[in-house]
Amino acid sequence: MGRITLQGIGKIFGHDPARAMDLMAQGKSKAEIAALCGAVVGLRDVAVEVPEGEILVLMGLSGSGKSTLLRCMNRLVEPSCGRIVVDGTDVTALSRRDLLAFRQKMFGMVFQHFALLPNRTILGNVGFGLEIKKVPAAQARERAMRAIELVGLKGWEAKYPNELSGGMQQRAGLARALAADAEILLMDEAFSALDPLIRRDMQAELRELQKTLKKTIVFVSHDLDEAIALGGRIVLMKDGEVVQAGRPEEIVAAPATEYVARFVAHIDRVAVLRAGQVADGTAPVLSPTQTAAEARAVLAGRGGEAWLVAGPDDRFAGRLPAVRLAAARPDETLASLLDRDPGTVEAGAGLAGLLGRVAAEGVLAVVDTEGRLVGSLTSRDVVLALSARPGAGGSVPGGHEAAISSEPAGAERWTGQSPNSPSTRSATRASIGSPTMAAG
Amino acid sequence: MAVPPWIVIAVAALATWKIGGRRVGLLTLFGLLFLWNLRLWQATVETLVLVILATAAALVIGIPVGIWFALSRRAWRIFSPVLDMMQTLPSFVYLIPALPFFGLGAVSACFATIVFSVPPVIRLTALGIRNVPAELVEASDAFGGSSAQKLFKVQLPLALPTIMAGVNQTMMLALSMVVIAAMIGAGGLGRVVWQSIQRLEAGAGFEAGIGIVILAVILDRATQALAARARPHGTA
Lengths: 440, 236
Hints:
The complex is a heterodimer of chains A (440) and B (236). With 440 residues, chain A is of the alpha/beta class. Chain A has 21 helices and 16 strands. Chain A has helices spanning 17-25, 30-37, 66-73, 96-106, 122-126, 128-132, 137-150, 166-179, 196-213, 224-230, 248-253, 258-264, 269-272, 275-278, 292-299, 322-327, 355-361, 379-387, 398-405, 410-417, 424-430; strands at 4-13, 40-50, 55-59, 81-86, 89-90, 107-110, 184-188, 216-221, 233-238, 241-246, 285-286, 306-310, 316-321, 344-346, 363-367, 373-378. In chain A, strands 6-7-8-3-9-10 form a six-stranded mixed sheet, sandwiched between helices. In chain A, strands 2-1-4-5 form a four-stranded antiparallel sheet, sandwiched between helices. In chain A, a hairpin with a 2-residue loop joins strand 4 and strand 5 (89-90). Chain A is elongated. By secondary structure, chain B is mainly α. Chain B contains ten helices and no strands. In chain B, helix 1 runs antiparallel to helix 2 (22-37), helix 8 (147-180) runs antiparallel to helix 10 and helix 9 (189-199) runs antiparallel to helix 10. Chain B is flat and about 65 Å long. The A-B interface holds A 74, 76, 99-105, 107-109, 111-113, 115, 117-119, 128-129, 131-133, 160, 162-163, 176, 180, 186 and B 133, 135-136, 138-146, 149, 153-154, 157-158, 160, 232-235.
């Protein structure tokens, strides 16, 4: 429950939407349309799919249309064109009355400035959605209390919003959205008004909650760090259009446009990149059946601490330290020379957690979930990946890119590793017409 | 008067004590006792009844109209100048149209008073509702609240302090008008003032004048206390 599909959503603000729609269909730009008929294009042909149980972050600067898009989903903003389908229900076709009932059933919303009623206690605020639904008072109270406990506000339910700190108020805001038991949470810059430390706590907590709640969450943010911390897919918007969509590591590794590149320029790449993206797929790979002499011939002139050995169909066999190869008799097979410690890393593992191992072990073997070798990971690869600045000419070396894109299943595997669960596997594929990821 | 004055005074003092605290309660007690002592009790009660009736009628008309003005931008644009005119016309001009319809007496006085005192409550009701933060209104929409739920659960409760300020102003205007309405036959303290002007009895006029002031202060303090209670928790 909670799958959202947006197709061709457009929104025109201004007097003459019909004319602006015509101009938009002719492919005129936002500025041209504004000049010709004075209408402002808020959204333009946006197609987004939010798989159920997943967090989707709508990102962009102010004026990019991200909040408008969010409000189109429950029709707080009426889209000028396009279709919204939630769990098979065509939301765009609902009558006003059905729309209200649908909002009560499906949507919870969390606001930037909390939007708590100052004349009600926290309990009264959290129960607001239930009151609207006309849930009997005793039951509403019980459900509100459960939501209050869930967000860690137990003991504060009798207080008024102005007696709570910003972070606690937003917890109450979240509890209000959860109490109504809606399938979908719409969060509009929900943590932007909080100070940085509290914000990080709330992000972590939302992620933690999401593990058990499995709601569909659409989160609007202007902060890429936040988007990454929440761990969902990202839709980057500019001037009412989707510029790029994908997982954070995909966007950071291969920004689709100059705009996206600027957006991700200052991002902490270690936190985002994954071993599979950084691994060097061009490094020589030895076969366990080769003899030491054969191996020395292959490696002639190459330096390195260790070599990776993989059997047929790329199955990783082990690591061969350079010193042992040098000391080996020429007719010894490599299989007998391998390290005891396999030194493998899953392709989906975050780079941040690997830095220590890379430094200590020199060479790590990056393998996929089936144990096939993706490439080698050395401190040199890490430094290269971190130094890569989009648009700075060098970017990520072509070989590395090739290592990823030559494995079409790669993207899927990474998702499997991500905190929000197996249900995302097929989802990622079916999602948004991913703008070219191979732009690197 | 069927009810003895001391019972009325005691009840009024207790009620204002409850609403506005000890000071307002004591003010009411001694103020009313003083008026009784001045032999102005009958006139005071007449004025009070007129003011309360006119205010009640003004609220019954004014609050719904104010809500309408708040929700309809168009209505506000069209009728806002009318409100301006109602408030700028000299107060006794209202006495003229009342006369041919209702003749001399309390009914005309009441009618003129209502017309004169209704604009503040309309204006402040509309203002209060418009000033409810957009995010709160949106929250009601987002959770699927109907227009009525939005009005009664969000807009009116949050506008209440402003509306109460309007009630206070309306009541003050009603009091001032009831005094002037003595010219067309309204009873009460106004008539005492009006008569003493005609008979050049400065002393009697002064006494009634003080009576009006005392009544005004009591009503003002009581309604202000009501307005303060309507304010949300913690916002002074």
